[in-house]
Recover the amino acids of this structure.
């Protein structure tokens, strides 16, 4: 049923042929060179690949994938390696194909509001390139200053604005890819409409199991003219949750609805010197956006709803600086929590929004019972939890205990009718939980689809599906980029 | 051709698929060309699979059986101040939610927040081996497994029979206001479509009317804001604000395809605004009618008689003529995916 590599590959011959595609400077095979690629944002997993290839052109990527196919060598596409689920962890004996040098913005069409980019383009670079036209690229994962569009496409990444604007998939109009079989395909077009099945939609979110995206056509949106951002503190998480329900029921459609719990608040106030209303178990952040006339009309409605929801204090941002400060506190919360603890795991299960309060209560109970602290910062608007499980990796067994708690939280999400992942992907980390969402027939169907794209099982094997061999879980601390303070987890 | 099978439960639907070597699902057949297949194909009507099985207004989601008429869904959502932002066609003709997904038909309102693909969350379907499967999810955000529900948009029933679908919905805007902006020709229309789509106004719908002499621009949002936005728009593009009843009739006529020829082919196209002038010329040459929607990204063409080409790929929804004009070439992966979902070719091919 599952794809496995049957015939024995010949690594020496493979490396020789690799040298015919790329100059020696762009084939990394020494242990020191490989070390930088051994893990991704989920540092608990680590594997050394056979080699790392650094292509600079689409033709080179195509040649590499076809070589892997001919030689039956597995490969893993890699953007910036910020996956939080182990998605870009190398495969032992396989090739890592890093796409950072395919970082050209090939075309911007302001009239049709689209950009055609190579996969190694950094998420924020798209918005920077189109800002002068009053446009922006909507999906905004908090790793956006470092993660690539190719990685976003593979994981269907989200951000703080998914309720209104959707995920990466909702913004990909077309793409060109080399499939694991070596076939080069073009899906979609420059139009926002399509004829026939949605091939782009199927490709986005494939977690690197179908092949490598070479060129992506992204839709752009006019930048929102004005914002109205409110921060409100509540005595209890329940009250914050009730406020979310009231906003949802009111008919407003905010761009973002986020909640931070007490532990996250404590960390954020220490890290960025944000001052939150005192004595609060939860802080809610709600943001309206749109034309000034629309926001002006909706603003009193939102303010009245929040006033009626019993906050300790509600603070609307009076200007752009105050808005930026609210978001800075929110976006830094996770790295800030990281300072409370040497190590942490981020989960991203989803529960039905109306059961958020119950989910948080149960997470608190489970975390108390396990004796493990857990902070919560989450996308309340779409029920996407981000429990941050704190542990000390130098304590024997601590990582394993943290993983057990993480697993219990995932089971709870599924049991409540939600999902094991809202935006970080299944990857290596959650592959054993895929079967909690899908039965054997459904998994078989997903396997068949994977086999259609990748008959030899060479593209990122061992990810998403509960099969193949996994590298051992080991303690390795923060991502190197986080240690350098370049990125933080959201 | 025998009478269609009429399962009334999902288990019966799976049994119906297994009961014959060649099958195809049909809904209300508002887009009959899409299911006009060889006589040996057994048709499975989903009209017995009717009803909303779950509706959670506070989740912005609902789940309905595939044969549920859109009209019923729209009415249920409206009771709670919500709507289908992809704005489907043929509500009153009886179109079903399953047929709409399979046909991939989103209406004018898809301009603002996207089409069917942007609102489908999950699907229970019967694959070509007769297994009832559930893929995707029931919550507004889910990244587990491949996004097969999205793939099914526009799949014409050729990859699986839907039994039950879960969609995301949005709160219905408090008010709408429609402007009629006269245009001299398709070039002028393209200019308005392009400029308005890039502006700050958050437009709800932006269409070139079948009369070909005006662009219809719909705003949706708080009642107090709309006249202010409209006033600014009218300083950029001359035109009028339509009375509420006139606007309602205009959009209802478009939604129900009342502008089309009754007997000739009705085709759907995907395009960009830049391709509009050439398409308009071709349609006029053949004495046809054209409704351009989604800011110039989608079009419906109604012709008095079949023709060979419109210069762009087109899908025949209704009336005579081949299913595809200038069919896009099918990559090898398309055949492989078809085999994955339908190994015995129980469903017709996309080409027929
Ligand atoms: C601090 C931090 C904050 C984060 N915040 C968010 C957030 O808010 N929302 C969110 O959704 N995620 C978030 N993430 C997760 C991560 O950033 C995203 O998953 C991101 O999309 C990964 O991009 P990348 O370029 O780093 O890809 P990588 O980690 O290099 O790769 C991710 C996956 O994509 C595949 N891949 C990469 N490029 C291609 C390609 N061209 N073609 C095919 N497959 C490819 C890889 O094989 C792998 O499976 C965060 C991560 C960190 C470390
Ligand atoms: C007497 C009568 C006259 C009518 N006249 C007209 C008319 O003149 N103009 C008009 O527009 N409408 C008309 N209608 C309405 C119209 O025929 C039906 O509403 C229409 O068939 C609805 O079909 P549908 O939209 O549900 O999809 P269909 O047209 O039935 O199917 C569209 C596509 O979706 C596929 N499909 C359908 N259901 C599923 C499923 N569950 N899973 C997978 N694939 C599926 C089909 O195979 C097909 O490819 C008339 C109806 C009747 C009864």
């Amino acid at each position: 049923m599952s794809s496995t590599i049957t015939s024995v590959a010949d690594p020496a011959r493979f490396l020789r042929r690799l040298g015919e595609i790329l100059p020696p400077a762009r084939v990394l095979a020494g242990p020191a060179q490989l070390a930088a690629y051994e893990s991704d944002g989920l540092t608990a997993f680590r594997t050394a690949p056979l080699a790392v290839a650094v292509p600079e052109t689409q033709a080179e990527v195509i040649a590499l994938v076809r070589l892997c196919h001919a030689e039956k060598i597995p490969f893993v596409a890699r953007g910036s390696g910020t996956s939080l689920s182990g998605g870009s962890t190398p495969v032992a004996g396989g090739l890592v194909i890093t796409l950072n040098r395919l970082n050209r913005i090939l075309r911007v069409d302001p009239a049709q509001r689209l950009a055609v980019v190579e996969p190694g383009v950094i998420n924020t670079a798209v918005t920077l390139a189109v800002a002068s036209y009053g446009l922006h690229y909507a999906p905004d994962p908090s790793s956006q200053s470092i993660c690539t569009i190719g990685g976003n496409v593979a994981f269907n990444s989200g951000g703080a604005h998914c309720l209104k604007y959707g995920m990466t998939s909702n913004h990909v109009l077309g793409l060109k890819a080399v499939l694991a079989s070596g076939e080069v395909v073009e899906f979609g077009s420059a139009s926002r409409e399509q004829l026939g099945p949605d091939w782009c939609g199927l490709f986005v979110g494939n977690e690197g199991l179908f092949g490598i995206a070479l060129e992506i056509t992204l839709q752009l949106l006019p930048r929102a003219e004005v914002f109205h951002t409110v921060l409100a503190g509540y005595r209890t998480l329940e009250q914050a949750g009730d406020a979310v329900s009231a906003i949802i029921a009111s008919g407003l459609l905010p761009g973002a609805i986020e909640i931070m719990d007490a532990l996250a608040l404590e960390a954020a106030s220490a890290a960025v010197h944000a001052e939150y209303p005192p004595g609060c178990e939860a802080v809610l952040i709600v943001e309206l956006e749109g034309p000034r006339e629309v926001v002006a009309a909706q603003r009193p409605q939102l303010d009245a709803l929040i006033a009626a929801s019993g906050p300790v204090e509600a603070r609307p941002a009076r200007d752009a600086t105050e808005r930026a400060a609210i978001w800075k506190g929110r976006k830094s919360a996770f790295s800030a929590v990281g300072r409370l603890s040497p190590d942490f795991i981020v989960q991203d299960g989803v529960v039905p929004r109306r059961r958020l309060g119950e989910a948080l209560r149960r997470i608190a109970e489970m975390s108390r019972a396990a004796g493990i602290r857990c902070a919560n910062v989450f996308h309340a608007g779409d029920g996407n939890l981000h429990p941050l499980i704190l542990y000390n990796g130098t304590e024997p067994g601590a990582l394993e205990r943290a993983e057990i708690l993480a697993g219990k939280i995932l089971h709870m999400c599924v049991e409540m009718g939600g999902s094991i992942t809202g935006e970080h992907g299944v990857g290596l980390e959650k592959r054993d939980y895929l079967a909690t969402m899908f039965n054997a027939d459904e998994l078989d169907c997903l396997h068949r689809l994977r086999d259609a794209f990748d008959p030899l099982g060479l593209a990122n094997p061992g990810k998403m599906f509960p099969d193949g061999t996994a590298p051992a879980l080991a303690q390795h601390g923060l991502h190197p980029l986080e240690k350098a303070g370049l990125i933080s987890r959201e | 051709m025998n009478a269609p099978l009429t399962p009334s439960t999902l288990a019966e639907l799976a049994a119906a698929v297994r009961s014959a070597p060649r099958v195809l699902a049909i809904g209300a057949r508002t887009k009959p060309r899409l299911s006009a297949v060889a006589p040996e194909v057994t048709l499975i009507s989903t009209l017995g699979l009717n009803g909303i099985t779950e509706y959670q207004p506070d989740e912005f989601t609902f789940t309905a059986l595939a044969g549920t008429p859109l009209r019923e869904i729209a009415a249920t959502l409206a009771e709670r101040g919500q709507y289908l932002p992809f704005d489907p066609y043929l509500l009153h003709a009886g179109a079903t939610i399953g047929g709409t997904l399979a046909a991939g038909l989103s209406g004018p309102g898809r301009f603002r927040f996207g089409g069917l693909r942007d609102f489908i969350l999950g699907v229970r379907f019967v694959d070509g081996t007769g297994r009832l499967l559930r893929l995707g999810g029931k919550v507004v955000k889910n990244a587990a497994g491949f996004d097969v529900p999205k793939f099914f948009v526009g799949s014409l029933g050729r990859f699986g029979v839907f039994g039950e679908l879960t969609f995301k919905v949005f709160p219905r805007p408090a008010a709408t206001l429609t402007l009629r902006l006269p245009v001299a020709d398709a070039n002028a229309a393209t200019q308005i479509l392009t400029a308005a789509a890039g502006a700050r106004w958050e437009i709800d719908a932006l269409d070139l009317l079948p009369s070909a002499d005006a662009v219809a621009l719909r705003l949706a949002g708080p009642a107090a804001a709309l006249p202010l936005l409209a006033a600014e728009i009218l300083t950029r593009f001359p035109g009028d604000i339509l009375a509420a009843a006139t606007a309602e009739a205009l959009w209802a006529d478009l939604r129900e395809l009342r502008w089309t020829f009754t007997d000739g082919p009705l085709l759907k196209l995907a395009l960009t605004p830049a391709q509009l002038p050439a398409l308009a010329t071709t349609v006029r040459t053949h004495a046809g009618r054209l409704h351009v929607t989604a800011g110039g990204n989608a079009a419906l063409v109604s012709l008095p008689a079949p023709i060979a080409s419109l210069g762009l790929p087109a899908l025949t929804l209704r009336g005579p003529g081949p299913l595809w004009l200038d069919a896009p070439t099918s990559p090898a992966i398309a055949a492989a995916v078809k085999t994955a979902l339908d190994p015995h070719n129980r469903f017709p091919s996309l080409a027929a």
Q: What stands out?
A: The mean pLDDT of chain B is 94. Residues 140 and 148 of chain B are 15 Å apart (CA to CA). Residues 175-321 of chain B form one domain. The pocket of flavin-adenine dinucleotide (ligand 1) is lined by residues A 40-41, 76-84, 87-88, 99, 119, 141-143, 147-148, 150-152, 154-155, 157-159, 207-208, 212-213, 423-424, 460, 479, 487-490 (CB under 6 Å).
